[in-house]
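Hi F.,

I've been meaning to write this up properly since the lab meeting, where we talked about keeping a consistent format for the predictions we share between groups. The idea is simple: the sequence comes first, exactly as it goes in, then the structure tokens exactly as they come out, then a line or two of notes. No screenshots and no reformatting. I'm using this chain as the first example so we have something concrete to point to.
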Amino acid sequence: YREENKTMFTEYNDGFDSLGIDINEPKQSRVILWDYDTMLHHCLYSGRNEETGERNPEFEEKDIEYLQGKLTEMTLKVLNLVESKFSILALYIWVKGKGNFRKDLSADYKALRPKPNPVINNLYDYAKIAHQTIPADGHEAEDGIYTMSTKIDHNGIILGVDSDLLQIPGIHYNYQKNIWRKISNDEA
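Output, unedited:
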């Protein structure tokens, strides 16, 4: 509460308390299932000029070393936050792969999306080596996450920002919004 303008502020709730996990108990061990494509694209966001509000120039090939460091820093930040609440038993990081059966079914699938910055391919190559990403050949990252989540009875933690992932029951962490959420079978 601020006296000078009579504004009430509430404490931010990241939703972790809604998971029903007792923070006084030892940390639970969980498998982490990560849809990493958005992380790569987010890494390429160059921001806006504070004075003009215009978007900064796109990153280029000459910036790849900086972007690799930025991607690793962003990755470690998310993993450190998760590890502050859970013990990481295993980590599976999915990215787009070659081909997608959905494009075979409909040529219009994702056809209206803007062309990505060509530097993204360098980041995918880097992530494959540095972060041991798993390419989702023939389908999407969400499909690989669903398959693995099913194999572990939906007891892992799904990291991602895509609302399609909310069709998978279990614990979810949206790292862009810093929000934890538990999705029941009925909700999924």
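Notes:
The mean pLDDT is 87.
Helices lie at 37-43, 64-83, 101-105, 120-130, 141-151.

If this format works for you, I'll send the rest the same way.

G.
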